[in-house]
Predict the structure.
Amino acid sequence: KIDHNIYACYISRVDFGTTLLFVDITASKKAEKMRSEFFSNVSHELKTPMTSIRGYSDLLAQGVVQNDKQKQMMLEKIQTEVDSMSRLINDILMLSRLESMDIEAEMMPLKMRGIVEEVLESYEVELAKHDICMEYDFEDVTYIGNHQQIYTLLNNVIGNAIKYNKDHGKVYVDIEEQGDGMKIVVEDTGIGIPLADQNRVFERFYRVDKGRSKQRGGTGLGLAIVKHIVSHYKGTISLKSELNIGTTIEIVLPQQKRT
Ligand code: ADP
């Protein structure tokens, strides 16, 4: 019995008989489904902030809001929504660049401590606001990689350890040489991820707590991007997490060639 969803069947008649050729199209069907799900997710993610921007700007344009404080609040909401849309678009561009992989990224020696500090600078406000303590006292490691990709990888993993932490929590970052490559460990004392969700957090747009993710500037694409970068470098990633105790992400990246 042939499953017509899975196989495309080609029949060709030649002089001395019939040839049947079965081609497995499961992968292409799956890819097509993923593509259409992705577009519907992106449309939905963009629609929400756009509706809110349209609503507030209409009210401001009609001049119905007289109160200066209210006007200010609406302008700030518009700014927040624009920021969230631009983060989403940047993440989509990053994913599409990683997926096409036709342009080889420039690989050069990177000082890992410097990149961690660069990442932390962008979270200064968040760290102070929630009194989160950062620990990273590792010896500097030099790794050949693409600056934008390695920065994005660390930014997403460390960013999550900060975003999903508790007030007065801790984030511990360790990077060390492992074989020819390096091992990155990011550990937090945050809210943790329920067991049932642990496999799914690497899927695009999968969030355990949508409200918290959005409120902290998440796009739902961070770990999907990390997974892509890790597989691009032929590395491995593992996640351990306990609800209300914290999460540990471990990434091992083998040595790369300089270009
Ligand atoms: P987001 O942009 O929403 O942070 P990610 O792809 O980076 O998206 O992560 C997916 C989801 O996994 C997050 O929405 C969050 O629910 C959960 N998550 C990721 N990292 C952590 C962490 N360190 N602690 C707790 N939950 C996390």
User: Anything to note?
Assistant: The mean pLDDT is 91. The longest strand covers residues 170-178.
